[in-house]
Design brief:
The complex is a heterotetramer, with 2 copies of chain A (327 residues) and 2 copies of chain C (327 residues).
Chain A (H helix, E strand, L loop, with lengths): L1 E5 H15 L3 E5 L15 H5 L4 E3 L4 H13 L3 E5 L10 H14 L9 E6 L14 H5 L5 E3 L4 H13 L4 E6 L2 H4 L1 E5 L11 E4 L4 E5 L4 H13 L4 E5 L2 E3 L3 H11 L2 E8 L4 H13 L8 E5 L8 H7 L3 H13 L1
Parallel strand pairs in A: 2-3, 2-4, 4-5, 5-7, 6-7, 10-11, 10-13, 13-14
Antiparallel strand pairs in A: 1-8, 6-12, 9-11
Chain C lengths: L12 H26 L14 H8 L7 E3 L5 H6 L4 H9 L32 H14 L6 E6 L6 H12 L4 E7 L2 E2 L2 E2 L19 E6 L3 H16 L5 E6 L17 H8 L3 H11 L5 H24 L15
Parallel strand pairs in C: 1-2, 2-3, 3-7, 6-7
Antiparallel strand pairs in C: 4-5
Helix pairs in contact in C: 1-2, 1-9, 1-10, 2-7, 4-10, 5-6
Classes of the chains: A alpha/beta (327), C alpha/beta (327).
Bound molecules: thiamine diphosphate (TPP) (2 copies) and magnesium ion (2 copies).
Chain lengths: 327, 327, 327, 327
Amino acid sequence: MSKELSYLDAIREALAEEMRRDAKVFVLGEDVGAYGGAFGATQGLHEEFGDARVIDTPISESAIVGISVGAALRGYRPVAEMQFADFISCAFDQIVNQAATLRFRYGGRASVPIVIRAPSGGGVSGGLYHSQNPEAWFVHRPGLKVVAPATAFDAKGLLKAAIRDEDPVVYFEHKYLYRRAKGPVPEGDEIVPIGVAATRREGDDITLLTYGAMLTPSLEAAEELAKDGVEVEVIDLRTLQPFDRDAIFASVDKTNRALIVHEDVKTLGIGAELSAVIMEERFEQLDAPVLRVTYPDTHSPFSQVLEQANLPNTKKIVDALRRLAEY
Amino acid sequence: MSKELSYLDAIREALAEEMRRDAKVFVLGEDVGAYGGAFGATQGLHEEFGDARVIDTPISESAIVGISVGAALRGYRPVAEMQFADFISCAFDQIVNQAATLRFRYGGRASVPIVIRAPSGGGVSGGLYHSQNPEAWFVHRPGLKVVAPATAFDAKGLLKAAIRDEDPVVYFEHKYLYRRAKGPVPEGDEIVPIGVAATRREGDDITLLTYGAMLTPSLEAAEELAKDGVEVEVIDLRTLQPFDRDAIFASVDKTNRALIVHEDVKTLGIGAELSAVIMEERFEQLDAPVLRVTYPDTHSPFSQVLEQANLPNTKKIVDALRRLAEY
Amino acid sequence: MPPIKRTKFKLTPEQLLEMFYWLRLIRAFDERLSVLVRQAKVRSGVYTGIGQEAIIVGTCFGLRREDYICPLHRDLGSFLMKGVEPRVMMAQMFGKQGGLSKGRDSALHSGVSELGIFGNTSMLGANLPVAAGLALTFKMDRTDNVVVAYFGEGASNTGDFHEALNFSGVHRLPIVFVCENNQYAYSVPIERSMAIDDVAERAHGYGFDGVAINGNDVLAVYQSTLGALARARGGEGPTLIECKTYRWHGHSEHDKAFYRSDEELAMWKSRDPIPTFTTYLQARHVLTDDKMKEIEARVAQTIDEAVEYAMNAPDPNPQDAMTDLYT
Amino acid sequence: MPPIKRTKFKLTPEQLLEMFYWLRLIRAFDERLSVLVRQAKVRSGVYTGIGQEAIIVGTCFGLRREDYICPLHRDLGSFLMKGVEPRVMMAQMFGKQGGLSKGRDSALHSGVSELGIFGNTSMLGANLPVAAGLALTFKMDRTDNVVVAYFGEGASNTGDFHEALNFSGVHRLPIVFVCENNQYAYSVPIERSMAIDDVAERAHGYGFDGVAINGNDVLAVYQSTLGALARARGGEGPTLIECKTYRWHGHSEHDKAFYRSDEELAMWKSRDPIPTFTTYLQARHVLTDDKMKEIEARVAQTIDEAVEYAMNAPDPNPQDAMTDLYT
Ligand SMILES: Cc1ncc(C[n+]2csc(CCOP(=O)(O)OP(=O)(O)O)c2C)c(N)n1
Ligand SMILES: Cc1ncc(C[n+]2csc(CCOP(=O)(O)OP(=O)(O)O)c2C)c(N)n1
Ligand SMILES: [Mg+2]
Ligand SMILES: [Mg+2]
């Protein structure tokens, strides 16, 4: 049985359910308390769980993560919120050095079950410090897991999985989807496992790998190509680290063509790794080069004239798919 | 005319010469003053240029970079030292948000001519916080330039170019090379331009792309293959952002095979981008998949038994080259 | 060093009227922005400083063109007082080509070096190390120019605040640190973000004076600033001036600010800096009814013209989305 | 709250002798490490705390097993006092399989949760937010356990120090912050890293007490620690204890420490904590010559056995290079 929720409500529900299920789960961050968070993701939690488990912090991103690591070492499961993913740069050292290396340097005798929620992404007139997609930095750092849900269902299921995971997970929730992505969500305890992609549309001709807010334009583009009889298989990665190699290879083995679509910039965005891995593992099967449709290598401007010119969209994806189809 | 210097002395000489040439150049960092820096890269500078231009800072990496940005806005050319590249994570926000975006957000009315020197790399029993290769994070961030010299000649010439560049440059100097890499360096004012790779060995059969401390094992491996009559073209990238696309494509057009070797971890190391770009731009020319020899996706252990097992070396490179040759 | 709060000062009637004009203009500018947001004509997040104008006017009034300011997100007024045309600031808020950032930004992240204005990133506290760097160059140049750096009480909890103030203390830099303590950081009241009454207390941990004053009293702010400027120009180093104040509107125009009581708001509105100053000017017969009418008219006209200009200003050119990243 | 420095305390002869044993053991351990470095048997950077032992003994002596310590790089002795076997610590320094990190690390970056020991990264100050997180859970669990967090005066200039102490003050966490002020941060004397006499001063900026004491007087350190522990256990929040001391050796064993004068070193060596305490114990007839011999023998034997064990301990297995990264 399931019900319709927005992506944002799905996140809120996952938090509430996990906090009810496990007294060790608590949330901390700026304005996450009575205010309910800058985007409302923690609304109602303070009322239900009180000061001790819903903690408004000072403006101290580095400490927020460091405190989470300390709490995790004592068996707690902190869920830290970065008010915007852009500010995760202020907590960078605590994430990539403190959290990501602890299990390794402890010789496996401890781990760090923390979740860092980071509202990311553009298309919301956020300008250069409220639109960033910082996922690649963390995918590059061993010891971290990185997820990026595209649907309300996954927003809930992946957040639950992240909270229950024994390792540090950076959870990127796309701001553009908060209210726009609506759909059924699992009731109760169903989780979406970390590391498993979802095929959103089947097709034999081209594999399209994407995640987050780029799923919708990708699906639209796939429908466009269907009109010309080209069937695109759209795979939503959902987890970026570790990404689902089996699902990717299985699809490419079938289609022999692949396009990667992401909102992050091109150079060393996750598309680079996917492309390199497909080349390494499936060179023989490729009938065309793996292509990328991404944000160009620059910052996110406020002006919609400029931002819309930069963002990947259905048309850009269609053009790339056509190039691959005709290749 | 030129003379023999160590990589470390070449860096020191570049600093001294640039400080003599331009009164606006100054250095700051931890222990860079009378002590001459943890590795001696600033030795003699305090004596020659005094407190005002050779500044010992408190342990405040974030401020070191922020201060550099402020000074650069007033026409100075600060050269900031991170005592180890590993600690650059503590200055991350000031680099990727403050410095990298300033010109953009100012609408092109100002730029940030700072250099951040970061002693990076392993093979020196440094363990997980004194062996890191953090270059990919910065290559991924638009607005930054990234260089990584492999020879004494380039250590000097690229540092001079970085200091004279109008944009923020992260300069990765490899600790393993400090005293081991010796060679002729340009006298006086000769610079090594940013963005231009160097072909260290010509060959028609396989293109090998590398940089930093991996150049030597790469050249050794190339000699190995020469014995089997396989001629490997070894290209030292020198600049990682912007990397020299023309040089890469010209070589691949000739060899139709490419191997990338770097000490950074595999996932989203610079090799991923190079591989993806070669695929996008030269798919037709490739007779084999582009392969990567890199550090595996984990941290750098202290124990030499463990570190040496992880580090790329001549044998691993030879094996990969053979795979490509036989492909 | 003479006590800051009792600094002797003298202002001519003309100067007093100019102060009044600025108070009114800045208030009117923010109020108009607030309306434009409600009319959905300005689409960005707008952070007004309504109620806090005395801080900007009191701190900027005694500055030279050569002095540098490092404003925070509420300090649009300081851009005006430092010489940016109102129409340009308005175009900036509209994200138009004619703004400081050519539409890249719609807030205060863009500076003007010739006018001594630094435009910070969104990252709170990140402007303070930059301020230290600017001040360091004033010292290097042996000028007696000063940097005035603004931050909220919430931002005083960031690591950058600490690193910047510590460095400034060590080098006795010519900086005036102005804390705009408006009692809240977004929804978080000061008692949940620090365990002290006065942010000014923190200055003592850096080896310089900190004073807490009534930030709604323009003459008191001006007086203390004069004292701090004199110290800084005289080589006696930094001073922290904490200005107690209150923001009338929500954190941004989208924030209903339910987290505070009507009583509290009423109390602070009764401390409106403008009527207090008006009473004083009238008591001194400096501000006649005619003068008042004249100033109000000038203010209204200036704002109308600015809006007119901004509304009709062209959007940026999509071709410019990729420019101004590198020099 | 009762004044910290005059806390009443009573120690039995057995306890006093135990304190003496620890002073001697920790001194001997570091001295042996120093020799092992010169003999190139220990290949990692070794940071001894020789001269600073009274701080470790005085702060750890009153701790429970459940209390948590967050040591810095010189605090090997605190691992021993908290219950790690000397042989295991020695194996750790040798980077052997039998060490805390299985050879991943050869320093103090590995902790033991069951013993209440946190192993920090190399990043100075980064242990303090983690300490706050640990203390937060003690409060959540309604235990009266305490966290003792160590840092150098140099580390007190990092952003993490500020964010962690501020958060700890706001939540009145059960923490004792112990500053080991040994006058230098690597080569940088305190006057070049802060403009204040006492780091303890900084506590007042966070709303709790800071006291500066003679860190070479083990009884004074113990006394103040007792007071701070009582406060923390009683829910009265954090205390900062600044221990004035001096490191006899260089920053690491590779540092010749030319940056300080022989006079200064001689002055501080005359303040050696061990003879002072010995005199006291002899005056009280607690430490007889026999007891002295017995303790010295025990110390020597313990160290010899530890070295013996570590030298013969197996190296890690290369297969383990990739383990212990994720759970
Ligand atoms: C490093 C960082 N973290 C979080 C934010 C989000 N944010 C923007 S303004 C604000 C509150 C700032 O409070 P304060 O410093 O007191 O300034 P005020 O808005 O009250 O003037 C927050 C949390 C940010 N901009 N930067
Ligand atoms: C963030 C960071 N920056 C720089 C370093 C390099 N480093 C290691 S110890 C040290 C000096 C530390 O001084 P202090 O905190 O006073 O401790 P002490 O060594 O004197 O005991 C420095 C600069 C580091 N480990 N971490
Ligand atoms: Mg505020
Ligand atoms: Mg020290």
